[in-house]
Amino acid sequence: MILGNLPYLKTLIIRDCIIRDHNEMIVTFYSHLSSLTINDCHLSINDIEFLLAQTPSLVYLKLGSCREVFDSIFDGSSWEKFIIANISSLKKFEFLFSYTLKNNNAMPNINSHIESFRTPFWLNEKRWFVICDYNMQQKIINLYTTPICITKTDYLSQSLVYSFSHFVTIRWAVLSMNTSHLPILSWTDGLFDINDIEIHNKIKLRSIPIDDNRTKYLSDAMQTNTIITQLDLRHNQVGVLGAEYLAVGLRYNKTLQQLNLALNQLGDEGAQQIANLLQNSTVL
């Protein structure tokens, strides 16, 4: 409606919008629009693509969105193909996409989604760099361009930030074509970093629950961590595979002194994996 009544509009900043049945709409190209910001977008990925396909002259695009499903909006390859085909003039693309896992949701393969942004298109041609955070306690995945494109006063951040809390966050950064890309551990208020060294040497993740897949991400991040001295994973769902991940990841860690895996699902085989780790460790 706005674009239809203002065909010469160059910049549009809105909180959200609604697109009705595509079949009932007349496809019109808004060739003057060069900058579009949707701060709290609830459109489906199909509606987003439908809208953007009508704005071929976009130079700047900013999208903020809390998603109900982990859809192709998190996929760099899909965006790459769409941008090349429909909005090839785009110079700057800023986004924050957030997804909260429900109890029955399967954990997405974050590694494969991160790799979809590690291409010459993203890193060399466009120089759009991406970070993915997984907040372990809140089970929230935040995918965003860096530097982060929102502030604590923005509407979208109000649903993601917990001002008086701190969360263990596993972070993947896509900043180069380098194939060595283990995640790191960070502490956030749900979105923004907390730089308080006093909370950085202990991790308490009781009754999250953490399963084997989540254990893999945590173990990867622990490989290069040089701060954590205590890791408490009591009362989770760490099984045999999770124990194997921990044994591999912590093999390279030189600072962890205490590991608590009580009330998990290790079994004899998993317990043996941890026993081997302890036997070969010089600090645990």
- What is the β-strand count? 11
Strand residue percentage:
15-25%
Radius of gyration in whole Å, from Cα?
22 Å
Number of helices: 9
Structural commentary:
With 284 residues, the chain is α/β, with parallel strands linked by helices. Helix 7 (212-222) runs parallel beside helix 8 (240-250) and helix 8 packs parallel to helix 9. It has nine helices and eleven strands. The strands form two sheets. It has an eight-stranded mixed beta sheet with strand order 1-2-3-4-6-5-7-8. It has a three-stranded parallel beta sheet with strand order 9-10-11, with no helix packed on it. It folds into two domains: 2-200; 201-284, Leucine-rich repeat, LRR (right-handed beta-alpha superhelix) (Alpha-Beta Horseshoe). Keywords: Repeat. InterPro entries: Leu-rich_rpt, LRR-containing_regulator, LRR_dom_sf.
Concise overview:
With 284 residues, the chain is an alpha/beta fold.
Question: What's the layout of helices and strands?
Answer:
Elements: H1 2-5, E1 11-14, E2 35-38, H2 45-52, E3 60-67, H3 76-86, E4 92-100, H4 110-115, H5 120-125, E5 130-135, E6 140-145, H6 155-158, E7 167-174, E8 184-188, E9 202-204, H7 212-222, E10 230-232, H8 240-250, E11 258-260, H9 267-280
Parallel strand pairs: 1-2, 2-3, 3-4, 9-10, 10-11
Antiparallel strand pairs: 4-6, 5-6, 5-7, 7-8
Helix pairs in contact: 7-8, 8-9
Note the main attributes of this structure:
three-stranded parallel sheet; Leu-rich_rpt; LRR_dom_sf; LRR-containing_regulator; 284 residues; single chain; eight-stranded mixed sheet; alpha/beta; Leucine-rich repeat, LRR (right-handed beta-alpha superhelix); repeat
